[in-house]
C-alpha cells in the first residue's frame, strides 16, 4: 500500500477545499501522489471557456501542496492510458462525478472514485464572487 503510486487528474481552477480534500484522500491510498493538471487548451475545448487561473498558476498551486509529489500537464483526455503507464500509476483516483468513466483502466491499475466534498464547486464560487 505505502509503495503504491497514486494518480489523479483535474482542472483545480479557483482552488478550494473540495480540491484539497480529494488530493489529501488520494495521497492516503499510496506512498506517492502524481497529479495531472488539465491544460488551458483542454478546458477551452471541453468546457467552452478558459479557466480563471492559467495552467502555469494552477500547476504551481497544486505542486506546492504537501501531499503532492509530482505534477504534469494533462493535454488530452484521450491520453489517459498513456499518462497512467508513463507515471507508473498503481491507483487512479477521481471524484464520483466521474464514476464509471474510467473503469476501462482497471486492467492496468486500481480505479477509485471518492465522494465529492458537498456544496462547493468552482462554478458556484465564480457565480458567488461575480454576484450573479
Ligand atoms: N472535487 C471534489 N469535490 C468538490 C469539487 C471537486 O472532490 N466539491 C474533485 C473532482 O471530483 C475531481 C477533482 O476535485 O476529482 C478536480 O475537480 P475539477 O477541477 O473540477 O476537475 P475536472 O475538470 O472534473 O477534471 O481528466 C479529468 C480532467 O482533468 C477534468
Topology record:
Elements: E1 5-10, H1 17-27, E2 32-38, H2 40-47, H3 55-63, E3 70-74, H4 80-86, E4 91-95, E5 110-114, H5 122-130
Parallel strand pairs: 1-2, 1-4, 2-3, 4-5
The chain binds [cytidine-5'-phosphate] glycerylphosphoric acid ester.
Describe this structure in words.
With 132 residues, this protein is of the alpha/beta class. The chain has one domain: HUPs (Rossmann fold), CATH 3.40.50. The chain is 33% helix and 21% strand. It contains five helices and five strands. It has helices at 17-27, 40-47, 55-63, 80-86, 122-130, and strands spanning 5-10, 32-38, 70-74, 91-95, 110-114. The chain has a five-stranded parallel beta sheet with strand order 3-2-1-4-5, sandwiched between helices. The longest helix is centred in the N-terminal third of the chain and has 11 residues, at 17-27. The chain starts with a strand and ends with a helix. The mean pLDDT is 96. Bound molecules: [cytidine-5'-phosphate] glycerylphosphoric acid ester (C2G). [cytidine-5'-phosphate] glycerylphosphoric acid ester binds at residues 9-13, 18-19, 22, 38, 74, 77, 94-95, 97, 116-117, 120-121.
Q: How would you briefly describe this protein structure?
A:
The chain is of the alpha/beta class. The chain has helices at residues 17-27, 40-47, 55-63, 80-86, 122-130; strands spanning 5-10, 32-38, 70-74, 91-95, 110-114.
